[in-house]
Structures are given as C-alpha cells and as structure tokens.
Specification:
Length: 341
C-alpha cells in the first residue's frame, strides 16, 4: 500500500512539475507578431481588455499564461499608443504598456521656416493635420500666452529641430512641444554672460533679429557677421534694409521683389522703417539665435550676396565699396545665369 501511495505521490509530483514547466514555458514564450505592431490602449482599460487588444492584433493569445503573469506582476497598465516590436516576451510587452512611454514619430522642422510653411513637413507623418486650425492657433494671442509667450503670435517661437511627437499628436500638442523647446533654449541662454541680451531688451526682440539673420544666410560662419552688421545699423539708427522682411509681408518667399512691395507701409518693411520689426518673420534655429546674441565684432554696415555659387556675401563699411560689390555681384549673376532680384 505504501508503495502504491509513493508511486501515486511521485506521479502527482511529476504532473505538477511538468505542468509548472509547461506554464513557465508558455509564460516565457515569444510574442506572435513577426513585425512591429502599433496598438492603442484606451483609458480605463482592464487587464482583460488589454488581453483582447493583444489578441486582436496578433501579439498574444495564450489567456492562461497572460492571467498568471497579471496575477504575479500586477502591472499598472497605462493608456496610450504603443509600438510593440517583434521578438518580445509577454513580460516585455506588458512592461512597454506599463512604462507609459507612448509611441512617437520623428519629424524634422528645418530652420528659418515661417509658421505657415511648417505643416508641409508635419503632414508627411500626420496627413490629417488641419492647417487652418494650426494657423489659427499660431495667431491666437490667448493661446500664445497660455504657453508662456508674451506675444500676440507664436511666429518665431517654434524652435526648429527633430522632434519625437506622440503618434496621436494634434496641432495643439505639436505647437506646445515646439514652444516649450524654444523657451527652454531661452532659459539656457539668458544666464550666459557677454551677450547682447540687454541691448536687445527681451527674448521677443532676440528672436525677431535672429529670424532676419536666419533668412539672410544659410552659411553658419556668416551668421555672426551679418548679425554684427544689423547690430551696427540698429545702434546708429539706420534701417535694417532686409529684403526677407518684405517677403514676409506678402508671403513672397521666392522670385523678384517688386517696387510696390518695397514701398509697403507695413511695420515689417525694414527697407522703409528703422529699427526692428514688431516680431519674427520666421522661426530661427539655435545658431541664428546665438549669432543674434553673440554677433561678430565688425565695422561693416553693408553686405550683398556674391552670386558666384559660393552662397557667401561681400561685406563693406561704406556705401561706395558696397556699390562696387553690387556691380561685381551683377557680373557674377550674368555669368552664372542667376536671376536678378
């Protein structure tokens, strides 16, 4: 009888052992998705609802193993969009959902784009982005102030960069993230010594000047020199004379600038009026902003594009030399076939 009992106990132990091993093996199995899968966990989802989502998306269908891990780990599953890579264990899948690190899409916004140009870059990733809503939010003073911007528009406050935006980001979400990056840069630069912060007066004026510097040259080495020219002009009360400010008025980003446009009474017309414009004409990048705050020391008051294919400028401190350089630039254009602006 004892032998039978021992055999029975041994059989039960073997069954328990193999059952335990089988469950552990199932719990440690790899998820079924062969490729990365994007899933959404709605707010208030129970563990049972999460299992249904995993099953529907071909990630995991072993309910017994799932329930055992839920009982063992008691994870705090969070709502949001998540990207589940292939080759994950169930514990790793649940850890992704528990982390709250939602799926993102990277978008690069180049330097020097006006606010109305930025949706073209965003719509490559967010095709449903509403341009009208975007533009209304950019021009909404109340919305600007809710983000900590002391201006009537967000023009200039959308820092160019490569951003990891949430997968379900909308116009408001994206604008908030870009403005936050801009104001973070403000706080980083404000405490540094030797800048022209006090000369310019505030961050809005820093961005305003930086936006003109950004538009006048794409050459990093020239930005501090051009900023130095503009600081010189502001100091002596000479108009900035920057054509990009006229282009901004008419959204005339390429092609010729007409005399009627140069005669515009808009306060953004720096060919006609002295001092800085009311606000930025584009969204300057870090290098242009730094150049506005730390301009090169120069006696130059004028510059003109060489138009020889180098993308650089002639600089001069008197009108006579400036006119000579303009003649050289005209000859360069004739050689290269560049348009006369």
């Amino acid at each position: 009888m004892k032998k039978i009992l021992l055999v029975f106990v041994a059989i039960l132990a073997l069954i328990a052992f193999f059952g335990y091993s089988s469950v552990n093996s199932r719990m440690g199995a790899t998820a079924q998705n062969k490729d990365s899968v994007l899933i959404q966990i709605p707010k208030g989802s129970s563990p049972t609802k999460v299992f249904q989502i995993l099953k529907q998306n071909g990630i995991w269908d072993d309910e017994v193993a799932y329930k055992l891990i839920i009982r063992k780990k008691n994870p705090s599953l969070k709502a949001g969009w998540y990207e589940i890579p292939s080759g994950q264990s169930l514990e790793q899948v649940l850890a992704i959902i528990e982390s709250g690190k939602v799926a993102v899409r990277k978008v690069t916004v180049p330097e020097g784009r006006a606010s109305w140009e930025i949706p073209a870059y965003l719509k490559k990733v967010y095709p449903k982005l509403d341009e009208d809503r975007w533009n209304k939010l950019v021009q909404d003073p109340k919305f600007a102030r809710s983000l900590g911007v002391e201006a009537n528009s967000l023009e200039g406050y959308l820092l160019p960069d490569t951003y990891p935006f949430p997968i379900d980001a909308n116009e408001e979400t994206i604008l908030k993230q870009m403005v936050a990056a801009n104001l973070k840069l403000r706080d980083e630069l404000k405490g540094k010594s030797g800048s022209k912060w006090e000369t310019l007066g505030n961050w809005h004026r820093v961005l305003t000047l930086a936006s003109v510097v950004e538009e006048e040259t794409g050459m990093p080495d020239e930005r501090p020199i051009i900023a130095g020219v503009f600081h010189n002009r502001l100091r002596i009360g000479m108009p900035l004379g920057a054509d990009p400010t006229v282009r901004f008025i008419f959204k005339n980003l390429t092609g010729p600038i007409y005399k009627s446009q140069l005669n515009s009474d808009s306060p953004y017309n720096t060919r006609k009026f002295k001092g800085l414009m009311p606000g930025p004409i584009s969204n300057p990048g870090r290098k242009a902003i730094t150049a506005a705050l730390y301009p090169a020391t120069t006696s130059a008051l004028y510059f003109v594009a060489k138009d020889d294919g180098s993308m650089t400028h002639f600089f001069s401190d008197n009108l006579a030399d400036h006119n000579k350089y303009k003649d050289i630039a005209a000859k360069n254009r004739a050689k290269t076939g560049a348009p006369q602006l």
